[in-house]
C-alpha cells in the first residue's frame, strides 16, 4: 500500500518529469505513424531532456543515489543529441 506523501514542490516536479519522460514515447509513436516508418522527432529529445532533468532534481531531493546515477548520464546524452541535431541542421542550411 502506498503511504500518504507530502505534496511539496519536489513531488510535483517528480510527477511532471515522469509525465514528460513518458510523453516522448507517445510523440515518437505519432511521428512514426505519420511518416509510415520509425523515426525519432526532435521533440523526443526535448521531452527526454526535460523529463530527465526534472526526475534528476527529484532524485537529488529524495537523496536517492540509485535514481541520481540512473538519470545523471541521460542529461549528457540527451543534451548531446540535441546539440548534434542543431549542429547538423546548421550545416545543411
TrEMBL record:
State any single GO MF term.
lipid-A-disaccharide synthase activity
- Annotated keywords: Membrane, Transmembrane, Transmembrane helix
Q: Which Pfam families match?
A: LAB_N
Name the residues that span the membrane.
Answer: 6-27, 39-60
What are the GO BP annotations of this UniProt entry? lipid A biosynthetic process
Q: Does the keyword Membrane apply?
A: yes
Domain named Lipid A biosynthesis N-terminal: residues: 13-84
Query: Do you know which Gene3D superfamilies this protein is assigned to?
Result: 1.20.1280.290
Q: Which domain of life is it from?
A: Bacteria
Q: List cellular component terms (GO).
A: membrane
What protein is this chain from?
Answer: Lipid A biosynthesis N-terminal domain-containing protein
Q: Which organism is it from?
A: Fusobacterium mortiferum
Amino acid at each position: 500500500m502506498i503511504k500518504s506523501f507530502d505534496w511539496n514542490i519536489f513531488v510535483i516536479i517528480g510527477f511532471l518529469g515522469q509525465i514528460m519522460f513518458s510523453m516522448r514515447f507517445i510523440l515518437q509513436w505519432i511521428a512514426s505513424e505519420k511518416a509510415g516508418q520509425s523515426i525519432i522527432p526532435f521533440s523526443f529529445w526535448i521531452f527526454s531532456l526535460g523529463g530527465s532533468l526534472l526526475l534528476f532534481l527529484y532524485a537529488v531531493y529524495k537523496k536517492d543515489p540509485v535514481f541520481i546515477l540512473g538519470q545523471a548520464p541521460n542529461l549528457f546524452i540527451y543534451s548531446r543529441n540535441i546539440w548534434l541535431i542543431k549542429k547538423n541542421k546548421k550545416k545543411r542550411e
